[in-house]
Amino acid sequence: MTSYSSPTRFEHGEIPAVGVLFANLGTPDAPTPAALRRYLREFLSDPRVIELPRPLWWLILNVFVLPNRPRRSARLYERIWTSEGSPLLAMARRQAAALETRLRRRIASPLHVALGMRYGSPSIASALRELEARACRRILVFPAYPQYSATTTASTFDAVAAELSSWRWIPELRTVNGYHDDPGYVACLASSIREAWSTGGEPSRLMFSFHGLPRRYFDGGDPYFCLCQKTARLVVERLGLAEERSAVCFQSRFGREEWLRPYTDATLLEWAGRGLGRVDVVCPGFAADCLETLEEIAITNGELYRRAGGGAYRYLPALNDRADHVEALAGIAVRHLHGWVAPAESWDGPTPRADADASRARAERMRLGRSRQ
Known about the structure:
By secondary structure, the protein is α/β, with parallel strands linked by helices. The protein contains 13 helices and eight strands. It is globular, with a radius of gyration of 23 Å.
C-alpha cells in the first residue's frame, strides 16, 4: 500500500508563503576518493546524464568508472578546495541568500528561498521540505542553468517530481526552463568582461567555453548547443567585438564518443600553434565557479595553452554573487512569480492577516462544535 506524507505542520491562521527552490548541480562532501565515489555514483546513475541501456551502463560504471575515477577526481578537487569547503556549494549558498534578500526588497508578501543540489547535499528533496515547513504553498523551481539541457534542467525537474510523488498535499509549481537570452543576464556577462578588459586590456581572442554534451543528445533534439550559440552571439554584439575575435567551444568531455564541437582544449592548442597571443576564457554556462571552471579551465587548460607555446592566458570568473548577477536572477524570478506575489509598493498586509485570523477563528468554532457533539 502506498503511503503519502503530510505537511509537517499546518495552522489555519498562517499566511501561505511562496517559495523559490534555487538549484544547482552539486558537489562531493569532501575532496576524498570515498566522497567522490558516493557523488559520482549518484551523478552518473542519472539516466538523463548517461543515456545508455541500464544493464550495460551499470557494468561500465561499477567495473570501470567507480574503481578508478574517484581517486583522480579527488586530486582535482584538492586543488580548488577552500576553508569553506566546496567552492560551488559556498557560492551557491551566498547566491541563494542574496537572492532572497533582493526578492524581499521587491516583494512584500511572504517569500522564502531554499538551496537544493541535484546531486549531493543539500538535496532537492531537503530544500522542498524546508519550503514546506515554511508554509510555502506555491513554489518556483529555479535551476541555475542559463542554457536548458535535458541533462541539467530536466534532471532537476525529475528530482522535484520524484520528491513530490510521495507528498499528500502538492504545492502549486512553476519552473524556470532557462534564461540564455535574458537581457539582464547578457548585460551582466558583458559587464564582467568589460571590467576585466578595463584593467588587463583586451585579448587576441575571447573564448566562450560551455560544458560539453554528447553529440547524439543534440541530434536527438536537445536545444543546448543552439542556446549556447545565442548567448555568445548576444554578448559579442553587446561588446561590439568583431566576430572573428571570439569562438564558442565545449569542454569537460567524458567517455569516447563524439561530443559537441569544437572542443575547448583542441582549440586552445590550435590557437597556441598559430601564435595568437593572449587568450581570455569565459564560461557563461556556469552560474557559479566550480571544478570545471576553477580547475579545468583556469588551471589545466591554462597550463595546456602555455606549454603549447601560447601567450598569456586568463580565465574570467563566473558571475557568482556579483550584485548585477543577483539582480538579474531576481528579475527572472519576479517575472515567473507574477500573480503569485504582491510588489512591495502594493502589499496590503492587514488584508491577508485578517483573512488568516478569520480562518483560525472558523477552525476553532468547528473544533468546539465537534467537541460538543
